[in-house]
Amino acid sequence: MHKVGLLTLLLGLGLLLCVDAEGGATELGSNRSHSVAWGARIFRDTHLERVIITQKSKWLRVVTRDYHFQQKQLTRRITQIVITDQVGDGKGGYASLVEGGPQNTFAKIHFKSQRGLSFSFIVDIYGI
């Protein structure tokens, strides 16, 4: 008896989570943005840097770009890196963390476009 009630409750909560704020149903997996976040914000961390990384397209080519975050004077430990894709229709590029990142004082991020397309990302780095 309790298993059926619990199953019904979980199913009802799952349906509520699939309804957006305007009351319409959303398609699961419809977000085509390539935004990504590594790590987690914690109490008293600060915004260390914000940079916009863009690369123009080249005909039938994949364009790449690397971004290196190095601290010069006061080195802080990175808590979170947030990459926001500015091309939200799924035609933007991809970001991957190559070196460093959260729990380190440096980071190297590699950006890659889709073939024949450009990319634009906002990189936010937080640390303590």
Automatic annotation (TrEMBL):
Q: Which UniProt keywords apply?
A: Signal
- The signal peptide stretch is 1-21
Protein name (Swiss-Prot/TrEMBL) = CG33998
Q: Which InterPro entries match?
A: MBF2
Q: Does the keyword 4Fe-4S apply?
A: no
**Pfam families named in the record:** MBF2
The scientific name of the source species is Drosophila busckii
Zinc among keywords: no
